[in-house]
Amino acid sequence: MPATTRKGKAKSASSGDGDNPSETEAIEAADDRSGRARKPSKKQAEINEDKQTAVKRKLEAMQKEYKKLKQQAKKLKTSKAGSKTSESAGNASESSSESSSFSPESEEEDETVATTRKHQSADATARLAVCHFRVIARLRLAVHRLRATARLPVHRLRVNVHGRAVSFVTSASWSFAISPLLAYCTRPLTLAPLATTLLGPFIIIPTPFIPTAPPSPLALPPIITITRPLPSWPLIFEQPDHLGAPPPALPAQAGQPPTGDLKDPPFLHGRTPTGKPKAGDYEAHVNKMIVRACHQYEVLIATEDAFPDLGTQDGWATQVWTDTCKRTQVFYKLTERVEKIITGRDSHARGGLRDKIRPHIAATYGFVTDGSERAKGANRERYRFLLDCDASKPEPVFHYKDVESRSGFAHNVLILRALQDHWFADGTSPGIKYASQFSPIREVTLALVFTTIQFCLDQWADGTFNKHHMYTEKAYKSQYDMHLRHIRDWCAMDVNASRTVRQRLYDRARRASGAAPVTAPCPGLSDSSKERLRAELAAQAAACDSDAEENA
DNA sequence: CCCATTCGACTCTTGCCAGT
DNA sequence: ACTGGCAAGAGTCGAATGGG
């Protein structure tokens, strides 16, 4: 390996040879002097200690305050409960007897009881509350165990309730997170189908657990609530298939999604790998599942959000993994390692498009590559024109069919070429395989193409091709948002017309791929034919009846 | 005490290479 | 030719340090 300048690696690489004592000593000495291993100075240690004690004291004070407030709330509640009917009091006592059997932490228990009591205003809801309480207790136990294992303070959990997945956040005041879930459950929750899965560390979500539909008190409620917008699932897939031979233990799992805790995907030769996670760390069939999940994930990058935030990435990884498991009928837990492999594909997805577009930039936009000063100047001018750099509110023109007259929005020859090369190369390409995600071409897909073209143009910003300019998320997310905004504005002008235009774009790209055209659903009989045949059928039936009578 | 600097760990993106 | 994996290199972040 060539000598690396990477700071983190330099140390381990050098210390690894070990045949040069002076070098090793120097490194050790350097370790003592600097870096995370170095000890803080006396003064700094004192400062740190002071800070820690201050925080501790603050925390203690807050806890005391919290206890006080809770006691006050309890008093208030008991005084109110006295005025209620004996029946509801009975129910309350039933639930409190339940609480005693499940209660490892009394503070959280009070919150839970409070949450539960909210549901006791009527007979039916009182019974419901008891059931909820059992579920809460079970959930809390699960959360407690997960926290103990992972040693993380907060988690996002997926709960399988009545066979439906519900995602929610557990925080310090975790009953706050679960109460909306309970508010949506108007029938008793049973313990049997309940399973909790650790999805990963908590990610800050601005609007915690907002139900997507208003609650209906009578009908069975939709309790699926996801904290992030999800893609328009399901993606279209072919018949479920089996990827390699599953291990002998798995056939028992196959067929139905198991309701209990899922197993971790098995590592290759049963050995826990080290280093960067990769699909090859796992057994062959898991390897293929991961690769397929990665492909689906890349489709989401192209069609749902080209620069998803962490929460979205997390949700997508869960979705594609679940989908892959369902499709292969082999069910494994989505471990953090697998999730990392899947979500690590986003820059690859964008980079692939960039690599398809880049070779066409100079020819399409007329950049001169001879390296002369005159060419540089012309290129710079061209670049500024295409990006509309001189305007106070730049509106890039590179995507117009005719950039000079600014006509033909999103119809530049490069747009269709990018679509064809990247997603519609042949009949097995993503654009054909996941047609529902691409037909019509989505605003997001167009925005990604626009952004990628802009990146390729930016490489010509100083007049010559700059290969060191990078397509980073940080630099181009804002550009992507701008393009998406412009495209949405364009679509909003005439929803139907723009949809037709985008549909035509898809049809052209599909046709170019050589894939069979989408067949329209077989038309049924026309109304007039139906009327004629109905009369004919009635006549035939009447004839049958008269025949039967004659025979009798 | 504040702020600039330094440094190591870590993340992200890219280019290359091996396998298919 | 394409795909997946690896490693290099650039960038970022947070903690420690030291000078004013």
TrEMBL record:
Residues 20-29 have a biased composition (Acidic residues). Signal peptide: none annotated. Pfam families: DUF6532. Residues 43-68 have a biased composition (Basic and acidic residues). InterPro entries: DUF6532. Residues 1-121, 246-279 are annotated as: Disordered. Residues 1-10, 69-78 have a biased composition (Basic residues). Residues 292-490 form the DUF6532 domain. Residues 86-104 have a biased composition (Low complexity). This is DUF6532 domain-containing protein. It comes from Pycnoporus cinnabarinus (Cinnabar-red polypore).
